[in-house]
Amino acid sequence: MAFVVTSALLGSIAVAAEEQPSSMGNDPLANAQQSFEHPVKYAIYSPAWHLSTNAGLRIVAQNQSDEAIELKKVVFTDESGEEPPSELLLNLTVPAHGWAETQVAYQELLAGNDCVERTMEDDWKLVEISNYTLNPSVRGLIIENTRSFRIYQCVRSVRAHWHNIDQDISGEGPQWLMYHFERLPID
């Protein structure tokens, strides 16, 4: 019996390996990044990150797929394990090959990640949080350092929940969120 289960499992793994896109090679970082990809790209903005205001969160999303998708929520886990996970409820329907945006009440998205907390304490200005742009291998690096400004990024793993409206299928999975910071250089 164990042989049959093992054979079936190995067969499934072999089929899955054969079905991988040719763009996936032997680079583990590239493979991991592709596994986090989702057709809905979104960015989160708030003036409350750097102004004394009760402004909410603005979410702008683009759907790159052929089907309408509802972005249900994003779950942020406290990486220290001291606080329970927090959910950013969105319920944002994004049409196929279209854009959508929404405003929600302010919610703390900066706590629970050491890189984000250290960067904020070091007087960097958070510009946006998004699930797209640069390769996560740049986390913790100053990626632009000119006389006019600096750009810095932190990476955080979250769980996104969505619903494919056209196929009536719900799903969830891990995603990387990039916290994009900038500031004037220190002379």
Keywords:
187 residues, alpha+beta, 9-stranded antiparallel β-sheet, 3 helices, 41% strand, globular, disordered N terminus
Describe the protein's topology.
Elements: H1 2-18, H2 28-35, E1 40-45, E2 57-63, E3 69-76, E4 86-94, E5 99-104, H3 114-121, E6 125-130, E7 142-145, E8 150-164, E9 169-183
Antiparallel strand pairs: 1-2, 1-6, 2-5, 3-4, 3-8, 6-9, 7-8, 8-9
Descriptive overview:
It is a single chain. A hairpin with a 4-residue loop joins strand 8 and strand 9. The chain is globular, with a radius of gyration of 19 Å. The longest helix is centred in the first third of the chain and has 17 residues, at 2-18. It folds into two domains: 1-35; 38-183, no CATH class. The protein has helices at 2-18, 28-35, 114-121, and strands spanning 40-45, 57-63, 69-76, 86-94, 99-104, 125-130, 142-145, 150-164, 169-183. Strands 1, 2, 3, 4, 5, 6, 7, 8 and 9 form a nine-stranded antiparallel beta sheet that branches. The chain has three helices and nine strands, in the order H-H-E-E-E-E-E-H-E-E-E-E. It has 187 residues and is of the alpha+beta class.
